Amino acid sequence: MDDQNRGGNGGDDDSYVLEDTGGSIEDIEHEMEVAAQEADSTLSRRHKMPAPEEAPLQKENLDLKDRYLRTLADFENFRKRSEREKSDFFKYALGGLLRELLPVLDNFDRALDHAGEGDDFHRGVLLIYKQLFDTLTKHGLRPIDQANVPFDPKIHEAVVSEQDPSVPSHTVVAVLQKGYFLHDRLLRPAMVKVAVGGPEEPR
User: What pTM, to 2 d.p., does this model score?
Assistant: First the structure.
């Protein structure tokens, strides 16, 4: 009967049976320590190796984590793009209005050029012009009105050229109509007179 009970514990049973070998207490304690270490090692291996039914769950968990990180990155890019578009909208919102006001500024320039400098009319026009111009510059308007600078096709439109060997070729010698920026965006190029026939500027 005892042999049958001992035989029933074979196979895959995880229990550890200590045989009575007639050894000393020290031998039995040593055998118990060895059995405990083997049990810990077995449990550790089982913990590290997922059961077959857990593998699909782990893969699904990794897929969900990857999708979450991608969605988070997409949202962050969308947030930054929205903030940039909002900033640009407010920064350049006056662009259309300022373009319509540029002919008014041109007329002020013509009036000041033809008015007698120092008389009451000239001073009155200049005062109104300065008030308007100062207000517009506070909102980002910047004139392109420099002469004696190299011609830049990005901001200049050459409408007249003249022979002048005394200055480097392709130098802006006169601004016929001012150009303007709104902050760093070109509203209108300046119409200029360009010198030709002089020495070429080194590139």
Answer: 0.61
